[in-house]
Design a protein that fits this description.
By secondary structure, this protein is α+β, with helices and mostly antiparallel strands. It contains 17 helices and 15 strands. Strands 1, 2, 3, 4, 5, 6, 7, 8 and 9 form a 9-stranded antiparallel β-sheet that branches.
């Protein structure tokens, strides 16, 4: 896939309304950030030791062509002269996020020179067995690859990597040594970190083994991404993204129920918003909380409304809801500016990158129309839920106008599907967002979605993020059996290919799909992939019944 993400398309070109804007939230900003800080969770640490020594096996039937095969116990290496071992790969037995420590010990004579080793941490076997290009042309920084060179100047010491890593496999290679002494790598440990504690829900005994395993991997994924914010992925980008937050918070409601973390993230987005009140798409925590400036994703901004609504419904925290309601309203007000008198969202003059999936060439006109209608509905519901005195009729009228426009101008009655853009692109996500927004429903919705999923001509989803909304649309339109099968085939497909956490990008027909033109850069533990746990518990009648 040829997609260059460098600078996120020149940082997605910010809205002209940013220029010379007054700080609309000036009075609340410091207080919001203080609430976010007060909600910061503690990290819980667990020391993990390697389970086995493994060797790489080239296997065309394995995911991305590589698998690991156990060859011995870690103790065998720890007792050996590492000058003879020279290279070894450890398997932690599980995906972990945290800090790697290595202990080196002199065996004979005294150290008369430093030693140098290369440490390569990987989430998947192929990650450690793919050659790095000499001329780096991938869409993200080479520095995201988790390889380090350590120079150890003193033996009988423990060296801890300063860098936090996310991995299951750890490869250590000897690059340089002195011939005057022997030494051992006589210990390796990994201090894993997460803010998640107790998974509060479980499945009945009647639940199928496959659904049980999918849920387990989904929970593992969420747990690894729950740090002091909901991270999008602990390998990279290691930051808080608004679209990921929405899906993570849904999964959290049906697992850990750590609602304070959701609250913290909502307040961070509010406190770090631009002076015109528009939310940045993501934020960093260090050296102090700050956004990725000029990075806006309008569909993500609208999801702030849904995230806040779901949080209020789950917790009953009306105080937070009322405090942040104005932030959601500001995002909606900004988006409404791009709706014309006919009820069409004008993507030709879009203020930001309109992201719905990594799928190359996806036309998002219909998707954006649906996302806008959905946001109007969500804002109406949030306002009424909070008891805020606001005239919601304006949003209801606009919602109706936009629905009517979509039905009249975006729906092809002969093909019975929605077509998007000037080229009339046929895609699964166009049908999905028309269903999620309530533009079509019932049998009509089922026909459109089934047609898109079955057609060889339609553009299919390329990520678990987009696939979440496919499952959602199936359930909304009454396609319960198909929703279960789709979930079992898609997320179960990752499990069958060896996933112990779910991946950022997955196409059952392309093991090497990558938004960055280099699959080892992909995250193999990604927050937006954790939502099977949400579906499995929200719809027990669909997913928890036996086969």
């Amino acid at each position: 896939m040829k997609r260059t993400i460098i600078a996120l398309a020149a940082l997605m070109a910010f809205s002209m309304s940013d220029i010379n804007a007054d700080d609309v939230f000036k009075q609340e900003r410091s207080r919001w950030l203080e609430i976010a800080e007060q909600s910061k969770p503690k990290l819980h640490r667990t020391v993990v030791y390697p389970k086995s020594i493994v060797k790489a096996v080239k296997d065309n039937s394995a995911f991305q062509g590589w698998r690991y095969e156990p060859t011995g116990k870690p103790e065998d290496v720890f007792k050996s002269n590492f000058r003879q071992v020279r290279s070894v790969t450890f398997d932690l037995g599980r995906h972990a996020v945290g800090y790697l420590s290595l202990h080196f010990k002199t065996l004979t004579n005294c150290q008369d020179a430093p030693i140098r080793v290369k440490v390569f941490c990987g989430e998947l076997p192929a990650e450690l067995n793919t050659d790095m290009p000499e001329n780096w042309t991938a869409g993200l920084s080479r520095a995201w690859m988790q390889d380090e060179i350590l120079t150890v100047e003193q033996m009988d010491t423990t060296v801890t990597l300063a860098r936090r890593v996310a991995c299951r496999y750890i490869k250590i290679e000897l690059l340089a040594e002195s011939y005057g002494f022997d030494f051992a790598l006589d210990g390796l440990s990994f201090t894993a970190e997460t803010s998640a504690q107790t998974d509060r829900l479980s499945l009945p005994q009647t639940c199928s083994p496959q659904i049980r395993k999918i849920r387990e991997v989904a929970v593992n994924t969420l747990q690894e991404c729950m740090q002091t914010v909901y991270e999008d992925g602990p390998k990279r980008d290691r930051r808080l993204w608004l679209g990921d937050l929405y899906l993570e918070s849904l999964a959290n409601m049906y697992s850990f129920q750590t609602h304070d973390l959701t609250r913290r993230c909502l307040y961070l987005f509010a406190g770090l918003s631009a002076e015109n009140g528009i939310i940045y798409a993501n934020s960093f925590e260090t050296p102090k909380p700050h956004p990725q400036y000029a990075c806006y994703l309008l569909p993500y901004n609208l999801l702030f409304i849904s995230t806040l609504l779901e949080y209020v419904n789950a917790t009953g925290d009306m105080k937070t809801g009322r405090d942040l309601w104005k932030v959601g309203k500001r995002q909606l007000d900004d988006a409404i500016e791009y709706v014309d008198a006919n009820g069409m969202f004008n993507t030709a003059h879009r203020p930001t990158w309109l992201f719905f999936d990594w799928r190359e060439g996806l036309d998002v006109n219909v998707c954006m129309q649906g996302a806008m209608i959905f946001a109007l509905n969500q804002m109406t519901e949030l306002t009424q839920r909070l008891g805020i005195k606001e005239d919601v009729s304006k949003w209801k009228k606009l919602e109706t106008l936009m629905k009517n426009y979509a039905r009249k101008n975006m729906y092809n009655s002969s093909r019975r599907v929605f077509l998007s853009g000037k080229d009339n692109q046929f895609s699964v996500l166009s049908q999905v967002w028309m269903i999620k927004s309530g533009v079509i429903f019932g049998k009509k919705a089922q026909t459109a979605l089934r047609s898109a999923l079955a057609s060889v001509e339609s553009v299919k989803p390329g990520t678990p993020y987009a696939t979440h909304y496919v499952i959602d649309a199936m359930l909304i339109s009454g396609m319960k059996d198909e929703a279960r099968k789709y979930l079992e085939d898609y997320w179960g497909g990752m499990v069958r290919k060896g996933a112990d956490t779910f991946w950022e990008a997955y196409d059952p027909n392309d093991d090497f799909i990558s938004p960055y033109n280099f699959s080892p850069l992909n995250s193999a533990c990604h927050a937006w992939s954790c939502t099977p746990v949400y579906f499995i518990h929200k719809y027990p009648e669909v997913f928890q019944k036996g086969n």
